[in-house]
Amino acid sequence: MRILSVVVLLASAGLSSAAIAGDPAQPAAKPVKEEKICQRLVPTGSMLPVKTCRTKAEWEKIANSGQGQLRQLKDVSSATMGAPAN
Number of helices and strands (H, E) in the chain? Predict the structure, then answer.
């Protein structure tokens, strides 16, 4: 009897949570899948190209971080070149 009451309690909790979650007749919206952009890149020291696929946002993030590093390198080199030698 005790097991039966536990099973009924769990089943009713499951039904009430499904009712709270929303209408089960409507399927959940699928997340939008971003289009991948593939490039053939040749790593330094290799002659074999490697196919690399990323989203447009990922490629932009890589490009922006590379530009930031280049700017930082230019700033450091210009500060070093302009300093007088002791």
Answer: 2, 2
